[in-house]
Amino acid sequence: MVPGLTHRKWGQHIHRHQTWWKFSKPYFDYVARCQFLLQQGRTVADFAYLYHEGAPLNIKDYSMSLERPPGYDYDLCAAELIQKMEARDGRIHLPSGVSYRYLVLPKSGALTLQTAQKLEELRKAGAAIVQQVQVTGTPGLKDYPKADEAVQNLAKNWPMLPEDGWNAILAKDNLKPDFVGDDLHWIHRRCGGDDIFFVANSTLETIERPCTFRVAGKTPELWNPETGEVFALRNTRQTDGRTSVLLKFEPSQSWFIVFRDQPSTQIAAGSSFPSWKTIQKISGDWNVTFDPKWGKDEPLVFDTLDSWSEHSDPQVKYYSGTGVYQTTFDFPKSNVLDDDAPLYLDLGRSI
User: Is 316 helix (H, G, I), strand (E, B) or coil?
Assistant: First the structure.
């Protein structure tokens, strides 16, 4: 179906009739690079949150109870996974290779006896199990009231979350945040000896943020998922088992920060955070031609680069195809500040 909106008003289905399809390769290259790296190794998270074992289970409501300080990631886990957990070296391990520092119980205050018995086994092996609220019994009536009494007795062995939250526990255990970067979003994976951080600026602003990673003793590199380039990260500082660096982001830009024992030999030349300087502004009219198969068969002259949605002509206002803009301008050689410096055409942003 042309122009490609096949899922009612949202147009969520991606196919060759989308208006931007033939321009989409850079986007899919970006997604492919991101997905390749984010499938490497295993996720790094400090908290495992146990689902409520009763009914109903509403994930939207449950997510409100995932209280934790910023900089610490988490996974949700069902009771079936609890049975597969083992505790050793102060961490809780799953057969997949993922491990956690803390296992947090649900705010429902109810556990099945089978789960409670496994939790007590983990506690005795050194697992850190934390109650958000006091567990008072089971979520059902099986073996009532003996099962409730047994769960209550087991729960007495598990510490409660302090009134001031996690700060006291984390300070006592000296567990620093895995990532610190203000309002940046992040994901941490570990593959063999390499640590892979995906860090994203979700704002529409150009920002600069000091970022700290809970990794030390490795060489950090900046990987650009848009181009595949790898840059050496300079001016980093390693203290107290963590690495700090200043990162710069364009609007909605993302980077991978990869910590490796053996740095890459394919380091791109130049700066990973280039600076830009405007040397000339292009003014004048633009001739715009449209694809007649999509509705508009006559070229127009635009004296300003306005949104089509604000145009008075309905064939432009509701046009869904591709437009080609053409103009001419003079570019004196005196504008070139450095013969080796690349020149870019800034087309502005429409968000």
Answer: helix
